[in-house]
Amino acid sequence: MALDKPIYRVLQRNREFIKEVQGLSSFEEMMDLNKDKWHLSKYKPISDRFDPKWFAPAKLDAEKNKGSYTTAPFGSAAYREYWTEQLRRCRDGYTVHGYFCPGDLYNFLNFYVLPVVVTVNGRKDRVLAHPHFWEAHYCFAHYIEWCKALEKDAVCVKPRGVGWSEYVANMGCNMYNSVANSVTMFCASKEQYLIKDGILNKAWRNLDWVNENTQKGFKRLRQNINSKFHKRASLLDRERVESGWRSEIIGQVIDSPDKLRGTRTNYLVFEELGSFRMSKKTVMTAKALTEIGGEKFGTLIGFGTGGDESSGGEALEGLMDMYYKPSVFNMLPIRHKFTQDGSIVETGFFFPVYLCMQKYMDSHGVTDIELAYNHYKVHRDNFESEGAVEELRNLKAEYPFWAEEAFLKSGTNIFDSIKIANQMIRLKQDKTMPKPKRGELQWVYAKGTRKITGVEFIENINGRVVVLEEPERDPNGKLFKNLYIGGIDGIDMGANNSLVGADGSKFCAVVKKKYLSAEKTGNLYVAYYLDRPGDERDAFEISLKLAIWYNCKFNVERTKKEVISYFRDKGMLQYMAKQPSIWSGGVDASKIPNIYGSPAHEKVVIHYNNKIKEYVCDFSELIFFEEILKQLGEYSIEMKRKFDMIAAMGMCEMLDEEYDASGLVAKSTQKATNNMRLFGYYYDTDGYKQFGALPERESFETQYTKLGYEAPKDLDSFAEVPPLNFVDPCETNTIGTTAPKLLFELSF
Q1: What distance in Å separates the CA atoms of residue 151 and residue 161, rounded to the nearest whole number?
Q2: In a domain, 407, yes or no
Q3: Over the stretch 570-620, which tens digit does the pLDDT of each residue have?
Q4: What burial letters (b/e) apply to 228-256, b meaning 16+ CB within 10 Å?
Q5: Predicted structure pTM score
Q6: Is the pLDDT confidence value at 742 over 50?
Q7: Residue 280 CB contacts under 8 Å (≥ 6 apart), including other chains
Q8: Residue 440: what are its φ and ψ, rounded to 5°?
Q9: Which of 336, 353, 374 is the last residue of a domain?
């Protein structure tokens, strides 16, 4: 039941609530971020003065006239004028009180029916009726208008159960009824997505309803083609010569790109795009159906439901790529803040489930976000408290708050999603949590030379290296040995040398701190570098700086030979780990020359995934990098090559396992003898011979200062300093009275 509240109250409540809960946003915010496109469709934001009834005058006519859209006699001038105007509005759109209603939305509100829940005599039932106005449909309709104006295609990721296929079926019906000779094609990977309760049957239902209920105003006979997969509006004469409107709707089941066929189309719709195998190739092949000779006249629309896994992670990968990188596929990106951290992104069209819950909509089609959000939050909390990991994952994927959740079921993820999600929430809400810093690593040179003496971290908010803790040092300021370990998922070519450019796999290096003592932090990742630079050597150099800065070895996938070669060329192979013994038949790989890194076969991936799973289970509360948590939460075994950071963590965890098996523990690089005091005979300050720990020798500068003289700067100026009577220890042990005498040695 719609909320009986003035729209300005709901809008204001929504504005206040999304400020309180990080990661929530609204259609109002989304459209405001895309003001540069408003002029393309004469878009105007919904305000307190807006009335959805303005967009449904024909529906109101039918209600007033008890089912008849017009009372004008059939065939009269008034009749023709009425239906000509309705046809124009469905085709071109309708402007009223300064608001523009796109044609597809006008048809949806006035000439489309769908099952709606009504209460009759206290009993709820479903009947065919005109849909209510939704803010979601209003924004999506304008998004499609932007796509047409810019000659772009559209991609949409949506929650389950929001009736989206009804709206898209309506788009095909509107094209069929209002544009002569038009073609709409609905494509699906399985027949059930088209017929039964599929999008094609929804379109057929409405075509029949329009033929029966529009007083012949929109009636389109189908005398030539009228099958369950293809309908054409046309007439046949006695000689079976076809004529008439000739618009058509076609349904195709496509389980391979080679099966895509048909004539040029005005609307080419992919239902449940996340279930198509080879979806990217299928879509790219299909684009030829929406243009002629380079002139684009049709619009391709791909939409998918969160949680679809009917054909595995490989299929959903295509929808993910199109959603996150729409420009690559000539699809129109849109800016929004439907992200867990509240950041602005530019992706395909997405709307969260809390914006499309009719139970909490007001009469203007705007959802009360707080009520809808809390409704789903209760269900999530119940699953979480019961430890129902898989059920919670399914709920999030099918009814997502963020697009990341919609892709949770893109494949097999063995990591504990609840612990990962809880830690992500703690990072956002707990202000006492450690905050990583961004910056760059720079070489430190000896003064006046190009000799490298170390590495330093320079903080920079745009830096490529993210650091939680700088290297731990012992009381003498020395680095520890075996305290830090690292993992690398490498690349062999940078963006400038690769066909895929910056969109390819990224180079990732992670550094993990092992256990030192109960008083120190341990078992946590302290730094990472994730980037695909133009020149791959930039990535190799940064990883070398990390290795030197933390005094750690890196385990790398052995197929990525270029990074190993780089370390070898720089004479720094001591920072590259040998192959773990688990992959060398139990033989200590350190005794076998030239075997660096780990192999890349499937068993390795399975093994390191299990090691990461154990780490997440035991130490999830020690993960303070949002990027790591994000990749852990979205990870899919089927699409493992897209998760560079997980691969780097896997290399690191295997090296951790090797260190533990070998008994390697953290220790200071300071030699033990450096802290020992020499024993022997010496003379104290009173000139008496003593035995014991030899006192530390004072520099000659200190001794000159004690006497009130300025110490010589170098050997050449030594003679210019007031003369002293140096004491030869072989001749005397007494101090004269004419001048102070010192027993020291020069430290030049």
Answers
A1: 30
A2: no
A3: 999 999 998 888 776 655 555 556 688 888 788 888 899 999 999 999 999
A4: ebbbbbbeeeeeeeeebbbbbbbbbebbe
A5: 0.68
A6: no
A7: 318, 321, 322, 329
A8: -130, 150
A9: 374
